[in-house]
Amino acid sequence: MSLVFLENITAIAGIMIILAVSLNLINGITGMLSLGHYAFFGIGGYFGAFMTVQVHKLGIVNGVTGLPIFLMIIILSGLAASLAGLVISGPSLRLKGDYLAIATLGFNEILKIIIENLDFLGGPKGYSIYSELGNRPPLFRSGITWIYLFVVISIFVITRIMKSVHGRNFLSIREDEIAAEAMGINVAKFKILAFLVGSFLAGTAGVLFVMYDKFYANPRDFGFIEGIPVLLMIVLGGLGSTTGAVLGAVTLTLLLQLLKLIPGISNQPVLVYAMLLVIMMILRPAGFMNRKELSDLEIVKKIRARISGIIKK
Amino acid sequence: MDGVIILEILQQLANGLALGSAYALIALGYTMVYGIIQLINFAHGEFFMIGAYAGVLAIKAGLPLYAAFPAAITAGALISAGVEKIAYKPLRKKNSGRLAALITAIGISIFLQNVIFLIPGADLIGLGTKNPMGIEKYVFGSVEISGTKVYIFLISIILMIIFIYIVHFTKSGKAMRAVSADRDTAMLMGIDPDRIISFTFALGGALAGAAGLLFALDQNQVSNFMGLMPGLKAFIAAVIGGIGSIPRAMAGGLILGLMETLAVVLGFSQFKDAFAFIFLIIILILKPAGIFAMARKEKV
User: Fold this and answer.
1) Considering the domain boundaries, does residue B252 fall inside one?
2) Does the ipTM surpass 0.95?
3) Domain count, chain A
4) Do B40 and A98 touch (CB under 8 A)?
5) Scanning every residue of chain B, which has its alpha carbon at the shortest distance from the alpha carbon of A123?
């Protein structure tokens, strides 16, 4: 295992954590089954790649302006993705469960087909920043630091939302939508909010992914089938638990990458994770964390009490 | 000039009906399973693929076409009932909820798509150039219709008639309708719901397997991902008609097949999958219970 390999796994794990945590806000916490998360991921990736090429062509990028411009691009790509999130949250107000799943899946596929037919984004071949810039790499790129900066931001944003007054509103929509409405909760507002935040974070993950190593956005990376592992991650971790989403993302990324090293099944990591998904659903549908967060665990509570005891002394 | 256009329309109508009837066959399985256990069986497209493989391998092994169909139907039925026994039944017994069932269905679907890779060289099998149906095309005056399309349409219709006979005029069919209407009451009447659910899966899988072979004969090849799009399209067809109802699923299949052919004729062939999904989303938003359904308020 070389250092590059370790770095790649760490980077992929980081991107997966952002995707899993944001999907968990929509699927696990608010209880809207969305299968179209990779649409947001893809929009972020394509938008970021396109913007990168444009700012390089304008010639405003140099050693000093590179970092703030990249930060701007990440945020703008997140906003572009959340625009799509706003669009898909429309059907979410009328559809539930399986029907919403199919509608979001359809949305993802529609988007993929549209991108495949847009010539200025490279069509089915994909959009390569290298060749758009005349075989030169862009002056900025994402890396472990950028990725984990946004990992921290996503986890922070979502845990803060859940600890705030509004956190329970999301949960109440998952538990019983009609009862939530009867209690005076604006269900539509919180459904839209969940999609907006979730798609924004997925969009930032998209730029970070495209700008990590390949500088290349391919429509085939952003289909709904490609997004199934993220669903598996949050299911594995325990739907509705942010801690679980992080754990699931790290475990599954490690598993998939390590499976690639084993000869014999190296071509078949998909087969293994599909089997894992089914077995997990049958044996322990609640996942690792069973909706609990890190702070809910007994051992963490004890450690906390011990620490606060020491401080008081 | 007008005559040419009418001929073109007739030919495309035949294509649309052939495609639509194949969708309808798959949609029947979806709608039946949904009617009986309220599960969107994502793996249904894969039963279609397995059926196609079984049929094509039978033809490759030298069996005649009329023997390949039973092979496809049996394979579809067995894999469908098997998946139900192994994966869905334990979930039902534990009352795990619909989300768990849906995710399991997705897992099964991906598993079956990739398990084919374990057989070397099986990810794409061509049937060769010879037309297994025998008849190249039918000529009516100056209209030429591909023989395969006509066969697809006719065989689908025959299978649907057999299917409707089973559902409406046999004891198992009656039990199926009873379980679908009210499982607890059906149990009190001495019906074993588990057996009936297995039977429903087998029946749906059989139709999907037959449809898979029809598709394979039309395309002259099978591949491990061939079930994905037709499966999703058939689901769209079932939703368009109104899921849970057999005649509506068939109508939905035909409507979708004709619409898709229309999209190709109008020159949007690369967007035809997108059309199906846009149509689905519009239907879901405007008439979630299907285009033939009456409005119904949700009971609390």
Assistant:
1) no
2) no
3) 1
4) yes
5) B270
Domain count across chain B: 1
**Which token pair is A203?**
């969009």
Q: Is residue A135 part of a domain?
A: yes
- pLDDT tens digits along A166-211: 889 999 998 888 999 999 999 999 999 999 999 999 999 999 999 9
CB pair distance less than 8 Å for B270 and A117: yes
Question: B299 pLDDT band (50/70/90 cuts)?
Answer: very low
Where in the sequence is the domain holding B40, given as residue range(s)? 20-228
Report if residue B289 sits inside a domain: no
Q: Supply the range of the domain harboring residue A171.
A: 3-223
Phi then psi for residue A262, to 5 deg, are -85, 120
A103 within some domain: yes
Residue B281 lies in a domain: no
pLDDT band at B52 (very low <50, low <70, confident <90, very high): very high
Q: Looking at the predicted structure, is the pLDDT value of residue A259 above 90?
A: no
Per DSSP, what are the bridge partners of residue A127? A217
Give the residue numbers in A contacting B (CB under 8 Å), as ranges. 33, 90-91, 94-95, 97-99, 101-103, 105-107, 109-110, 113-114, 116-117, 178, 225, 228, 231-232, 235, 239, 267-268, 270-271, 273-275, 277-278, 281-282, 285
The SS3 of residue A59 is coil
Q: How far is CA A200 from CA A26, A158, A232, B288, in A?
A: 12, 12, 21, 28
Q: Residue B297 falls within a domain, yes or no?
A: no
CA dist., res. B200 & res. B176, Å (int): 7
* Contact check, Cβ <8 Å, A285/B271: no
User: Which residues of chain B neighbour A248 with C-beta distances below 8 Å?
Assistant: none
Instruction: Determine, yes or no, domain membership for A267.
Output: no
Nearest alpha carbon to residue A81 among A196, A190, A188:
A196
Size of interface A-B (CB pairs under 8 A): 112
- HEC profile of chain B: CHHHHHHHHHHHHHHHHHHHHHHHHHHHHHHHHHHHHCCCCCCHHHHHHHHHHHHHHHHHCCCCHHHHHHHHHHHHHHHHHHHHHHHHHHHHHHCCCHHHHHHHHHHHHHHHHHHHHHCCCCCEEECCCCCCCCCCEEEECCEEEEHHHHHHHHHHHHHHHHHHHHHHHCHHHHHHHHHHHCHHHHHHCCCCHHHHHHHHHHHHHHHHHHHHHHHHHHHCEEECCCCHHHHHHHHHHHHHHCCCCHHHHHHHHHHHHHHHHHHHHCCCHHHHHHHHHHHHHHHHHHCCCCCCCCCCCCCC
Whether residue A268 and residue B232 make contact (CB cut-off 8 A), yes or no, is no
Minimum Cα–Cα distance from A31: chain B residue: B99
Residue A172 included in any domain: yes
For B161-173, what is each residue's pLDDT tens digit? 999 999 999 999 9
